[in-house]
Amino acid sequence: MLAAVAVLAVVALVLELVLVRPGWVESEEEDQARTEAVRAAERFAVQVNNFDSADVGTLKQSLTPLLTTKFNDDFESTVDDLLSQVAQAKLTSRGEVIRSAVASVDRDSAEVLVVADATADSIYGKRARHFRWSVDLVKVDGDWLVDNFSPVA
């Protein structure tokens, strides 16, 4: 009888290792991917909303490492005009992420929804800004990088 119980215990252990553990490891990897993708999207939202017209070059330098090559090319084509407007308006912005959530994630791509608030101060006065973005990320060489972002209504 004791031998039968021991055999059943060994069979149960083998079944757990074969059937349950791979799903557990996969789930743990997915949780880690979610966490890393959210951090990358939040870091992007904070960087994009924190700048000072007195040092507009810092904004460009801080964002570039967060972007894919493709998105950085798009960013480079428009950023100089944007930074010129920021400098002319003497615009300073301070922002923070209010909430974020993963809309979808797999091993090498993710969509993260981010809600952020910012306070902007310029020659035109002070105003609060509210953003809701969908941030598309891809994993490049182990890092989650922003591949696009768009407003969410």
From TrEMBL:
Keywords: Membrane. One of its GO terms (cellular component) is membrane. It is found in: Membrane. This is Mce-associated membrane protein. It comes from Nocardioides mesophilus.
